[in-house]
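Ticket #4471: structure output looks truncated?

Reporter: J.K.
Steps to reproduce: submitted the chain below (153 residues) through the standard prediction queue, then opened the result file.
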Amino acid sequence: MYKILVAVETSQPGVSAAVYALNLAQRIQAQISFLLFDQTEGDGSSAVSKKKKRLLYQQQLQSIIVEMSPKTETPVNFYVTNGQYETELVDFVLHNNISLLIVDFPTANHQADTNQFLEKLMSIKQQINCRIMIVSKKAFGKNLILNHKRGVS
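Returned output as attached by the reporter:
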């Protein structure tokens, strides 16, 4: 079975990759996993606030899945880690025979952040043997809408 992994950093959660992955998994009847990186060190938030952020994001994902559920029986798994992004991601991909890794393009406004993100992905790509897809939020839309016939619009 084709296996899709959506890697999400809870410090910058986005739903673009999740919606895209869910639509793709529905079309090709793939198994989908979400790996949430609970990046809590040094962001100045309390432990309770960090947990609320993660739970809120998980609820958003679950509502998207429920919205799609009448049309799909796609297996969905959730995993949470607080380890180093690159190490945990590579280990997960290798141990779970992931076919496709999908990530959200960061919403950072600085070119340095974008370059750092791309360098991190290139390093990961050298260690794994699966495709990587980067999904970005449409610049002209405030919210993504799930369209069962056309996907994200």
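Triage note (M.O.): checked the attachment and the full token line is present. Confidence is low (pLDDT under 50) at residues 139-146, 148-153.
Status: closed, working as intended.
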